[in-house]
Amino acid sequence: TWGPYAGAVDPRISAGVAKALLDMGCYEISLGDTIGVATPGSMNALLDACVARGVPLDAVAVHCHDTYGQALANIHAALCRGVSVVDSSVGGLGGCPYAKGATGNVATEDVVYMLHGMGIRTGVSMEKLLDANELIFRNLGRATESRVARTLLAKRTSGLGSTAPRL
Fold it and tell me: Which of the listed residues 3, 101, 108, 137 has the most CB atoms within 10 Å of its CB?
């Protein structure tokens, strides 16, 4: 893991903090890649360290930023290990204001598209998510960061409809 100030952080230290929080009564520990530098390898190393410290993966959530385009790969790695809670934001809104160069959160639309494509039921309507994306970014006066939203909204406005997997 990496921090904007300390640089590389030994995954065992992060796992120790997660275990301490669990022991204090936290029911869920969200492991955050707030500057978006993690890779599937470092995600697996962090999850290995958590398991070694006695943190059950059903008590773990992941929070991935997409600075280097690795967020979906990291989420997939976590899902394959048994993590089932993922933070995301419409259109990739948000970010890490104290870390220079870090971009926004992983886009909900991209995560939902991946999950639906994997056959995972989310209860999230892609069409309603796209409606929210369109409203938010129109009011912000800027383009969405979501690759999926850009593609599906372009299809929607051209009359081609949505080809998003439905579950």
Answer: 108
Residue in 26, 50, 80, 96 annotated catalytic: 96
Phi, psi of 31 (to 5 degrees): -90, 115
CA 15 from centroid of its chain's CA atoms: 19
**pLDDT by residue (tens digit) across 123-154?**
999 999 999 999 999 999 999 999 999 999 99
For 46-57, what is the HEC assignment? HHHHHHHCCCCH
96 given a catalytic annotation? yes
Report, as an integer, the average pLDDT of 53-82: 96
